[in-house]
Amino acid sequence: MKLLELEFGTFLLDDNYVIGEINEGVHVDLQINAIIDNLIREHYGNQPIGYISRRINDYSVDPLVHQSNLENSIIQTFAVVDGKKEDPAVYESETRFLDSDQVRFFSKTRQAIAWTRTTSRFPIDVAQLN
Hints:
Layout: E1 2-6, E2 9-13, E3 17-22, E4 27-28, H1 30-44, E5 49-54, E6 60-61, H2 63-72, E7 75-81, H3 88-95, E8 103-106, H4 109-118
Parallel strand pairs: 3-5, 4-6, 5-7, 7-8
Antiparallel strand pairs: 1-2, 2-3
């Protein structure tokens, strides 16, 4: 496990997933996304992974980021953890860029981790599930 603390957010890199927390007020644009993507690729190489977004803070994401990730990223699944019950329109805008089996929304981080670990898009260590 590796922890990256950057000026725009914190990222925990585990065996086959990343948990990201973007800081309050940040606008995630293609430049910030490229920094995140490069750090992820440095750690995982080309191994497919899952990304878990912990929505603790209010921030915005350029819609082009979703399109870029779909075309270029090693991220194969996307889980959103949000206990605030955001407006469903926000979720609908994000799911437009991803296949419905690639994205899930959760209220607890451990639920998102369990789903990400059991996704068949990348190898998992079954022993970790117990």
